[in-house]
Amino acid sequence: MPLLDLLRPVSDEELRVLSERNPGWQFERLADGRLIVSPTGGESGRIRAAVLGQLYRWNEARGLGVVFDASTGFKLPDGSVLAPDAAFLLGERWQALSQEAREGFPPLAPDAVFEVRSRSQGLEELRQKAAWYLANGVRLVVLLDPYLHRVEVFRPGGVEGHQGPERVPLDPELPGFVLETRGLFLP
């Protein structure tokens, strides 16, 4: 996960413009002002799309909230702006935001986030990112590692590791949602 240590922290608007001007790259800002820059490769992009599809279908059937893709940056309580590969936010929390807040980087932590490891990221880097999410109020962080065929589920109370699972239930944070991993991890 390449980190850029700039001369000064970029503003929310500058971060948005950087993302618009550099398609194919994801820019995130840490609380200390450093930028995380990461491209998406084909394999991790395929898995991200599949996970997003599962999350979207689950939410469509239940109508509990709003689902976001990797292009959405959330301004977390510590001032960082992170863009998970997929995210879920309860509907009442989304509705409580002003229209202006919805148009920018939503100023809150999602209820659940999903991150897919790409070739350019180490597993420890993603675990650190999971810790940042939890420290900012995210209730469920799911890391998928297609290289090790592993899913790690982080909650404020601890972490569960699943090696080569076919299904990973994500209750109670996502009621009735079961992440189907068959087809996500290729041999």
TrEMBL record:
<protein>
    <recommendedName>
        <fullName>Putative restriction endonuclease domain-containing protein</fullName>
    </recommendedName>
</protein>
<dbReference type="InterPro" id="IPR011335">
    <property type="entry name" value="Restrct_endonuc-II-like"/>
</dbReference>
<dbReference type="Pfam" id="PF05685">
    <property type="entry name" value="Uma2"/>
</dbReference>
<feature type="domain" description="Putative restriction endonuclease">
    <location>
        <begin position="13"/>
        <end position="180"/>
    </location>
</feature>
<dbReference type="InterPro" id="IPR008538">
    <property type="entry name" value="Uma2"/>
</dbReference>
<dbReference type="InterPro" id="IPR012296">
    <property type="entry name" value="Nuclease_put_TT1808"/>
</dbReference>
